[in-house]
User: Fold Fatty acid hydroxylase from Spirosoma linguale.
Amino acid sequence: MHIFEILYHEFVGFWGFDQLWEIIQTQNYEALLTQKGIQAFLRPVLPVLLLIEIIRGLFYRRYSHDQYKISVFTYILNRFISSFLSIAMVAFCIGLFEPYALIKTSFTWYWFIYGYVVWELAHFVYHYFGHKVRLFWCLHSTHHAPEYMNLSVTYAHFFLEAPYADIIRTTICILLGVNPPLLFLIMFIDGTWGSFIHIGENLLKDGRLGVLNKIILTPSHHRVHHARNPLYMDTNFCNLLNIWDRAFGTLQDEKTTMEIEYGISRPMKKGDFLDAYFGEIVALGKDVYRAPGLKNKLLYIIMPPGWSHTGDHKTATVVKAHYIREHQQELSFDERV
Ligand SMILES: [Zn+2]
Ligand SMILES: [Zn+2]
Assistant:
């Protein structure tokens, strides 16, 4: 295919208007009431919101090229590799584990609720280990590297993260009996909401969404998740329902008194795409190389980021505990106001 044709298809594909356009051209508006139709309608929402976010940023002179650079480069690279790998992994896990499913479910509303709760658990597991196992953090940290929050961050992922996430999520869901058509519907809803919660302050100043902040996981919660403030680190791992964050004690509301600092705690080269993409792998490689003995080398790979063979740990748990000890008075005052 001609290079311009490829670029044209990529451009059209990014906006996600193709299916909607087909419905309009064939005037088959009834299709909009089907699951496929609703998906066709929702797909362009995120890219359009992203465009509005950039335009608003430009209008209010808050737009900076650096806020989008890393995410855009990552999106382009991933476009060609990761989506293909991820779909293959989902199909592979379904085929492999479906015969061993503990129960059988069907495409009904009550199994949908069951499926969603199971999906959130599976998402929690993948995401939790993405933060707590250094090797998996290498895959997930690219998503946390941007030092701003906007809708483009939803595209910032290391290319091996999607297959890693999908192996864990699909395996858990299939083993717990979520049937594949239900799983695909849940994946679509999860993907759409998972993108929306990256909406930036330029477009939605207060991400709490009113009373919804008490019930579901809102953009505000996900902003907290992307923060490197000690109190906010390693919290809010869920995506839409925050039940598992509640169950495991990792739910953290945004404090009005604490401004969010986005990014990871490792000092990064500002706006450097390669550092955002490969920086954690390089850092892990160096630690493994320098560590004395095979046991320490292995521990660097499986222990949480910040673990040190010298005992001088800088893990999120240690940093947070230290911060809480130092700021006990302010924090208990915050609780009261
Ligand atoms: Zn994360
Ligand atoms: Zn995110």
